[in-house]
Amino acid sequence: MTVPTPLPKRPFANGRRQVTRLGLGLAALGRPGYINLGHANDYADGRSVEAMQQRAFAVLDAAWDAGVRYFDAARSYGRGEAFLGAWLAARQIPPDAVTVASKWGYTYTADWRVDADKHEVKDHRLPVLERQWQETGANLGGWLDLYQIHSATFDSGVLEAADVHTALARIKDRGVLIGLTLSGPDQAAVLECALAVEVDGVPLFDAVQATWNLLEPSAGPALAAAHAAGLGVVIKEALANGRLTSRNTDPDFSATSRMLADLAQERNVGIDSMALAGALAQPWADVVLSGAATTAQLRSNLKAAALDWDDRAADMAQALAEPPDAYWHTRSTLAWN
């Protein structure tokens, strides 16, 4: 590993952490199957645990060398936490040199198979939190900065679960930030309810991670309000699971994305870089996650940090936006591969 020049940082969660604007998520690095378009093409060197750990280390090394200091995992990302923890230990990264986030609430069930009937099972009850908190601690130890409810929704009941809130408040008392991640067309409404959750008069949540991209920007106003209230804001799925990359060959998308492709070509970058630049341009976005599965993808993603977001780009973004229900329906049809 080289000695890098870190990316610029900004305050996060009312200044309790300093974070780089770009981060790396391990959803596509910690397990052999994921729903990103063309994900299967990224594993010509095999999908054994050993091969995937080597790949994860290579991408993590590239991220570190580029100055990335924010890393995001989850219990359901196969061995994502274990890979990240092993890399942090092997590279002797000081805990205060990085911000590490993970999540609880989904259990990985695919048994390292891409063709599994179910890849993960969601359960937001207290026994799952207690078990997964111990597992996360074994993997990430003193590096963990932020622990998040994975995909909080109304139907999971987690926003009304006082026993879960109390347990999370105890974790918070240890100095770990508490957050939640969102998914689906109700992201804004769920976030509004989450902002009202308190334990002993103290707001529970310090951060929120949500889907925001050029196709699905509807959570933007709610995320801006959360940021104004002091929460750290993390953007996930900024590339719409590959739909905002050159791998999207859908004729309908191609017809509506000409301006995006033209802007990327003018700037000599990929579509992915422009899409990530759009996320970085949101003033309330503290961290934008790359979900790269290869070093080449990561390097292309990171070019977003040097791009300007002008009026032409803003006009293009308005033209690309889809109705939230349509976006989430399309996402639900993406195949694990």
Describe the model.
This protein is an alpha/beta fold. It has a single domain (9-245, 284-292), classed as NADP-dependent oxidoreductase domain (TIM Barrel, Alpha-Beta Barrel). 37% of the residues lie in helices and 17% in strands. It contains twelve helices and 14 strands. It has helices at residues 49-65, 80-90, 126-140, 162-173, 187-194, 220-228, 251-256, 258-266, 271-280, 295-302, 311-320, 324-332; strands spanning 9-12, 17-20, 22-25, 70-72, 99-104, 106-108, 120-122, 144-149, 177-181, 198-199, 202-203, 207-211, 232-236, 287-290. The strands form four sheets. It has an eight-stranded parallel barrel, surrounded by six helices. A two-stranded antiparallel sheet has the order 1-2. A two-stranded antiparallel ribbon has the order 6-7. α1 (49-65) packs across α2. The longest helix has 17 residues, at 49-65. The radius of gyration is 19 Å and the shape is globular. It holds the Pfam family Aldo_ket_red. Residues 53-316 form the NADP-dependent oxidoreductase domain. InterPro entries: AKR2_Oxidoreductase, NAD(P)_OxRdtase_dom_sf, NADP_OxRdtase_dom.
Q: Mean of the pLDDT scores?
A: 95
Overall SS class: alpha/beta
* Shape assignment: globular
Instruction: Sketch the topology as an H/E string, one letter per element.
Output: EEEHEHEEEHEHEHEEEHEHHHEHHH
Write out the CATH superfamily name.
Answer: NADP-dependent oxidoreductase domain
In terms of per-residue confidence, which ranges show pLDDT below 50 for 5 or more consecutive residues? none
Number of domains: 1
Report the sheet-strand fraction: 15-25%
Give the fraction of residues assigned to helices.
25-40%
N- to C-terminal distance: 31 Å
Pfam families: Aldo_ket_red (PF00248)
Protein name: Aldo/keto reductase
Domain NADP-dependent oxidoreductase: 53-316
Organism: Thiohalocapsa halophila
